[in-house]
Design goal:
Blueprint: H1 2-30, H2 37-62, E1 68-74, H3 95-107, E2 113-120, H4 125-137, E3 142-151, H5 153-158, E4 163-166, E5 171-173, E6 178-180, H6 185-190, H7 215-240, H8 244-249, E7 254-256, H9 257-263, E8 268-269, H10 272-283, E9 289-291, H11 298-312, E10 329-331
Parallel strand pairs: 1-2, 1-9, 2-3, 3-4, 3-5, 4-8
Antiparallel strand pairs: 5-7, 6-10
Amino acid sequence: MADADSVVRLGIVLLGTAAAVVAGALVFVVFPTSLTDLLGVLLVLVTGLVGARIATSLAGSLAPSHNVAEVAVEGPITRDGGSGGIASAPTSPGADDIVEQIERADDDRGADALLLKLNTPGGQIVPSEDIRLAAEAFDGPTVAYATDVCASGGYDIAAGCEELWAREGSIVGSIGVIGSRVNASDLADRMGVSYEQLTAGEYKDAGTPLKEFDEDDRKYLQGLIDDYYDQFVETVAEGRDLDEATIRDTEARVFLGSEAHEMGLVDDIGTREDVEDRLESQLGEPVTVTEFEPQRGLRSKIRAGAQAVAFALGAGLTSAFEGDVDGLSFRR
């Protein structure tokens, strides 16, 4: 099957190139008698190159050279990746971009399986879930491969794949939820800043950093974190076929890949080559992997580049708060 596809691709490229050369010769050499032969030959060559590029793209669509799509989740997981502020650290593509990559892979004629490369400490809750749901919806075998770190939201994503592989030294786990806030009320008092806010609803300003954190606020916000945790445990238990009590007993600790394997948090330990061998056995044919990357326009590329430069120059002052509740950040 692979040899036949190669012949088809080569045939399409050769035919497309030949057709472009013939068309270029007719348009730029034969008919316009006022053009010099040299200019005509150059234009024919240019036309041939353009035709070859178009034919190569067409060949890749009609007879793909790959059968496995690879999508990477690296760095902290956020909704929009590195497109926050100009002074924020450049990160991996945002969750929406990663979901788009997985969906493109699912629609791709050649992608019979999905390899999800994970190297992430986790991040925002809903964006992590969006990536997991996209992996679950992929039509074909899905294998997650943890390189350095697969923790928290990263493990949430892995729960959406049929298998999870890791290295012996990979950091795996952290099945928990953290909520954080900055308490700046004492600093505000010393600076002579008072907190006054008009709200409708008793808990509307719960977690606001300029007010004292009273017990009612703490109980309310801890309830949200507990609910998030319950959802996380249920997701992992279902996706990884584990007992909920076993998951809770980890107390959100992280484990080396070898120990995580013994506990059932990881299906197998191996290298990237071992993972590809596993996919080869699932597909019943040699594996060729192609990496899917986010499709970004010129404007987003320029912005990402500007962010990287600004951060490298030390413009690292960013907002201290990111979350669904004012002043409080929830993360997996």
